[in-house]
Amino acid sequence: MKTITNSQLEDLRRAAKRLKKDLGITHSEALERLSKEAGFKDYHNLQKSVDDPRPYQGLVSSVDDELKRVPVKPGKIWFTLDIKDADVYDHETFPKRWGIKEDQAKLNAVINDLVKAFPNLVRDDTHPSFEFGNWQRVFSLSIANPKNLLDVVSYVREIFRWDPVYVFQQNTVYDFSNDGAGKDYQSWLKEFGLKEAEEFF
Predict the structure, then answer these.
(1) Could you say which residues of the chain have pLDDT below 70?
(2) Whose CB among 57, 104, 128, 137 lies 3.0–4.6 Å from 86's, allowing a Cys bridge?
(3) What is the DSSP letter of 72?
């Protein structure tokens, strides 16, 4: 069976981020494309081929090392998945033990905040609120005593086999479509809108 190293997996994930920007596709589509080019059926099979498996499907990278140092604050946690990755999941069938529920109210709240952040933009399919509302599904997450942000991300990986796109906790947003760095919520709203505007034009 063909195998890869953790280092090669990290290289592929970085390449997927570049491909996403270059081709204007989702991060998931970029991962799938690169996995097939590397000789695997799909990204899930590539993940399972890591020859140095560690907890949570062996997904260990420099980003993960950073996430270990980010404590999880008390309070509710939300995460988003790209709608193409999440569309096969019916949240009403999730077992209670998962502690995951789709949260339409949070999705609507972020959409409304994006509208407020860009009041002068026409609300059509180029508006940041449209991009977020049409391409993200938002879930609330309740797991027992997560020690750090890696615990949260690893749990999402274990259930869905994808990294979350964004994780929201208190007033901070972690962007996993980029480098996983945390940003103040208001700053993230502005950056999200400007990024979408640049990609559209």
Answers:
(1) 1, 6-7, 51-63, 85, 87-89, 91, 195-201
(2) 137
(3) P
Report how far residue 76's alpha carbon sits from residue 34's, in angstroms, rounded to the nearest whole number. 35
- pTM value? 0.69
Residues 111, 14, single domain; the answer is no
Q: How far apart are CA 53 and CA 60, in angstroms?
A: 9
> What is the radius of gyration, based on Cα positions, of the chain?
17
Whether residue 69 is contained in a domain is answered as no
Does residue 66 fall inside a structural domain? Answer: no
Helices (H), the chain: 6-23, 27-37, 43-48, 62-67, 83-86, 104-117, 128-135, 149-160, 185-200
- Whether 68 is in a domain gets the answer no
Q: Do 192 and 99 fall within a single domain?
A: yes
Which domain, by its residues, includes 12? 6-59
DSSP state of 73: P
114 and 186 in contact (C-beta within 8 Å)? no
| Segment 170-194, tens digit of pLDDT | 889 998 877 778 899 999 998 887 7
Q: CA–CA distance from 90 to each of 108, 110, 164, 181 (Å)?
A: 19, 22, 17, 29
Quote the tokens at residue 154: 């690893």
Q: Are residues 14 and 97 in the same domain?
A: no
